[in-house]
């Protein structure tokens, strides 16, 4: 015998370890953990008695507190003789411990047996009541195979009644009585202990079976998913209310279900709180009046927690079964990576496969959606946010995205599109496909394909009208390129939404149409001519052959399905014509300041639009333009006497940071122009300020506020002279035009208003 001390939380003995001793708990408490059960052993209990004939420990034993044990070497029943030979009183001590433990485990078995019986009786009865109520309301019952097949627990070798009574009686004896009863006879002691150990093991096995039965069937009553009796009753109550029926009988049954669930101890508090709160918040009175939040004919899809969203997406897309299995395996491998942002060759290869599969599934899901049939919310989450897997995004984010998908119309306006809506506009011919990364439009692409022999001349006219071919061109070029670029971290890009990309809440990250247009309007209110372009106006009937007028063309904003940090100026016009919308690309979810992203992308638009108008002479200083003057200023800044040494050093650093890209130097200056110079805070040098103002002037109100400042006065005066000259010309030909019978149309009025800005 030896004294053993074990500190709190220590794994004292492990299941499966070879039996090495018996341990009487003198002080403290131990948690015994078996495969299907766990229970506490208090002071006086003996660890190892239950396993004394098996040769190995059947439980993990973990100290609940600092513990002290008496340890006795033990490997087989014959070793009891050695223990009892040391002290004859141990015969009663060990037998008493065995009786108490057998009684405790048999009583534990009885508790769980009653729980299982009560659960079966309640659930089967409630299901029958549900079927009757459905019949009474003349509503179809929801099919649930699990409930139909549910039966009572089946046990082999239950604990006999005599054993229960016997150990209950024996556990009530005092140590002295037990000592007298066994007469310190080690043979009687070993027999009593071994018999008790048998019933301990049997009771533990039965408890495991009963707990398995309850655990395996408890979700039939209540679970996170809607596939349970509680949800079936709730849906029945909703439908009955819609039809104007008396829902009191259903609600009474639901109260019974809630009461049973709360008292059973089978369900976690958060689960019950969430599910019951949803029910208690539902207004059945409004539903009865046809005013419930859900439509009467087609109730809104409820949030489903814990379901396989990926299966819904794959099934909807019709992805080939073998490829779907491969995708699942790759996705699981990706989720199991210790570092999903690794850039090793094997991880890059895995990301490429997932990316290719993602776009294949996206394309299939998109074409399926054209059928006009029901689209699950999970598919809306996929098409609009890149969501595929709940485990990758997290439960709370999944719920938030589910709700946002139901309100995705907030991300739509005349000039704002989700990626899915944009692709629809291409498919239906409302917009032409974007140019690819080689600056080639769809017609140019077909001609190139013909030149290289990939298609015949006869195929070109058919493909030019082929809506699916146009859509595939847009997806394989603009969609794939910009989805990666707007994510921001190109080397670790994977189009499947991941929780680490969601910072804060999806609601706060969401770029709605209002947010996008508010950010755009903030810049337009400063740089008023940003989206105005000179276009030709002619009306030979009223003797106007050609006059140039200003026309504002608000850009398209396309929201890609990712959580990113970058925006792109993808296309300054939709084609050859100057009065077609630019295409600006943003992530649909972002933590980056939207206003700053918008200023940056508008700066790039200014530059690229000028390049398009100027053509090959975009940097020819003999033809004055924003790009030619700015390029000349940057190229020869060292020789410019209007620049101080400090200004030249700043230009040098700006060129270094932008890798000698003149456009990027301009964009940074444009950001300062909008954010600071418009408020009278000087950030630009004299030369840059003069160029930018001439091509990106402030609106009238800002000019009025700043005209007193000598840094701006000369620029403003020159601008007003030039503007007034153009305005006078406009007034003259407007007067002439009206005298000849012409009407000032909305287009001409907008041109007139331009000169008042």
Account of the protein in words:
By secondary structure, the chain is of the alpha+beta class. Helix content is 54%, strand content 10%. The protein contains 30 helices and 14 strands. A four-stranded antiparallel beta sheet has the order 1-8-3-6. A four-stranded antiparallel beta sheet has the order 2-7-4-5, with no helix packed on it. Helix 2 packs parallel to helix 6 and helix 14 (377-385) crosses helix 16. The chain is elongated, with a radius of gyration of 39 Å.
Topology diagram in text:
Layout lengths: L1 E5 L4 E3 L7 E7 L2 E4 L4 E4 L4 E2 L12 E4 L3 E7 L5 H8 L3 H48 L7 H5 L11 H11 L3 H8 L3 H32 L11 H14 L5 H17 L4 H13 L2 H5 L20 H9 L3 H15 L9 H25 L7 H9 L4 H4 L1 H11 L10 E3 H9 L14 H10 L7 H7 L1 H21 L18 H4 L3 H12 L7 E8 L4 E9 L3 E9 L3 E4 L11 E8 L3 H21 L11 H10 L9 H13 L4 H14 L10 H10 L4 H7 L3 H30 L6 H9 L3
Parallel strand pairs: 9-12, 12-14
Antiparallel strand pairs: 1-8, 2-7, 3-6, 3-8, 4-5, 4-7, 10-11, 13-14
Helix pairs in contact: 2-4, 2-5, 2-6, 2-7, 2-8, 7-8, 11-13, 12-13, 14-16, 17-20, 22-23, 23-26, 24-27
Summarize, please.
The chain is α+β, with helices and mostly antiparallel strands and 757 residues long. The protein is 54% helix and 10% strand.
Structural class: alpha+beta
Identify low-pLDDT runs: 290-302
Distance from N terminus to C terminus (CA atoms, Å) equals 99 Å
Q: Taking all residues together, what is the mean pLDDT?
A: 89
What general outline do the C-alpha atoms trace?
Answer: elongated
Evaluate the radius of gyration: 39 Å
SS summary, helix count: 30
Helical content class? 40-55%
Beta-strand level of the residues, as a percent range? 5-15%
Arrangement of strands in the largest sheet: 1-8-3-6
């Amino acid at each position: 015998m030896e004294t053993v001390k074990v500190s709190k939380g220590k794994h004292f003995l492990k299941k499966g370890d070879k039996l090495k001793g018996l341990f009487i708990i003198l002080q403290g408490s131990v948690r015994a953990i078996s495969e299907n059960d766990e229970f506490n052993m208090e002071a006086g209990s003996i660890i190892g008695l239950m396993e004394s004939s098996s040769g190995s420990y059947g439980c993990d034993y973990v100290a609940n507190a600092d513990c002290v044990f008496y340890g006795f070497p033990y490997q087989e029943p014959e070793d009891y003789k050695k223990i009892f030979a040391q002290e004859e009183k141990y015969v009663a001590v060990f037998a008493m411990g065995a009786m108490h433990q057998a009684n405790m485990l048999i009583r534990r078995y009885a508790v769980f047996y009653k729980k299982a019986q009560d659960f079966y009786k309640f659930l089967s009865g409630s299901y029958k009541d549900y079927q009757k109520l459905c019949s009474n309301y003349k509503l179809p019952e929801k099919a649930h195979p699990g409930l139909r097949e549910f039966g009572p627990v089946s046990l082999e070798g239950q604990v006999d009644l005599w054993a229960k009574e016997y150990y209950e009686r024996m556990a009530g004896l005092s140590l002295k009585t037990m000592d007298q009863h066994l007469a310190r006879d080690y043979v009687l002691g070993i027999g009593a202990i071994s018999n008790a150990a048998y019933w301990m093991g049997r009771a533990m096995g039965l408890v495991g079976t009963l707990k398995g039965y309850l655990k395996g069937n408890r979700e039939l009553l209540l679970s996170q998913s809607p596939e349970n009796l509680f949800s079936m009753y709730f849906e029945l109550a909703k439908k009955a209310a819609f039809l104007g029926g008396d829902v009191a009988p259903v609600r009474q049954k639901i109260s019974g279900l809630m009461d049973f669930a709360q008292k059973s101890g089978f369900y976690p508090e958060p689960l019950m709180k969430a599910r019951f709160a949803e029910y208690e918040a539902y207004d059945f009175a409004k539903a009865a009046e046809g005013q419930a939040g859900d439509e009467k004919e087609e109730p809104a899809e409820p949030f489903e927690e814990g379901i396989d969203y990926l299966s819904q997406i794959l099934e909807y897309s019709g992805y080939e079964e073998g490829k779907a299995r491969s995708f699942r395996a790759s996705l699981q491998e990706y989720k199991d990576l210790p570092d999903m942002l690794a850039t090793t060759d094997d991880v890059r290869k895995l990301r490429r496969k997932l990316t290719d599969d993602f776009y294949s599934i996206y394309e299939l899901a998109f074409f399926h959606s054209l059928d006009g049939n029901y689209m699950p919310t999970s598919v809306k989450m996929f098409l609009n946010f890149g969501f595929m897997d709940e485990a990758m995004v997290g439960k709370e984010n999944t719920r938030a995205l589910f709700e946002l998908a139901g309100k995705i119309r907030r991300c739509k306006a005349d000039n704002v599109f989700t990626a899915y809506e944009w692709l629809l506009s291409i498919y239906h011919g409302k917009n032409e496909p974007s140019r690819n990364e080689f600056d080639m439009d769809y017609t140019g692409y077909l001609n190139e394909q013909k030149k290289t022999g990939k298609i015949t001349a006869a195929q070109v006219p058919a493909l030019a009208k082929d809506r699916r071919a146009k859509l595939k061109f847009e997806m394989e070029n603009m969609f794939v390129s910009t989805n990666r670029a707007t994510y921001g971290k190109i080397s670790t890009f994977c189009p499947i939404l991941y929780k680490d990309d969601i910072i804060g809440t999806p609601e706060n990250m969401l770029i709605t149409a209002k947010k996008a247009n508010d950010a755009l309007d903030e810049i337009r209110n400063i740089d008023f001519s940003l989206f105005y372009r000179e276009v030709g106006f002619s009306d030979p009937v009223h003797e106007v052959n050609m006059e140039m007028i200003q026309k504002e063309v608000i850009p398209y904003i396309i929201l890609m399905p990712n959580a990113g940090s970058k925006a792109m100026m993808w296309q300054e016009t939709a084609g050859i014509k100057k009065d077609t919308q630019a295409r600006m690309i943003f992530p649909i979810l972002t933590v980056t300041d939207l206003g700053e992203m918008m200023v940056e992308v508008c700066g790039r638009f200014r530059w690229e639009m000028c390049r398009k108008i100027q053509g090959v002479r975009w940097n020819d200083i003999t033809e004055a333009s924003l790009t030619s003057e700015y390029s000349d200023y940057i190229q020869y800044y060292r020789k410019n006497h209007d620049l101080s040494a400090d200004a030249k050093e700043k230009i040098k650093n700006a060129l270094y940071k932008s890798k000698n890209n003149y456009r990027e130097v301009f964009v940074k200056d444009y950001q300062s122009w909008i954010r600071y110079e418009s408020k009278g805070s000087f950030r630009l040098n004299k030369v840059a300020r003069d160029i930018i103002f001439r091509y990106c002037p402030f609106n009238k109100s800002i000019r009025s506020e700043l005209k007193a400042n000598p840094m701006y006065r000369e620029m403003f005066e020159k601008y007003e002279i030039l503007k007034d000259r153009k305005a006078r010309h406009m007034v003259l030909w407007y007067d002439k035009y009206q005298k000849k019978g012409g009407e000032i149309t909305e287009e001409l009025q907008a041109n007139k208003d331009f000169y008042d800005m």
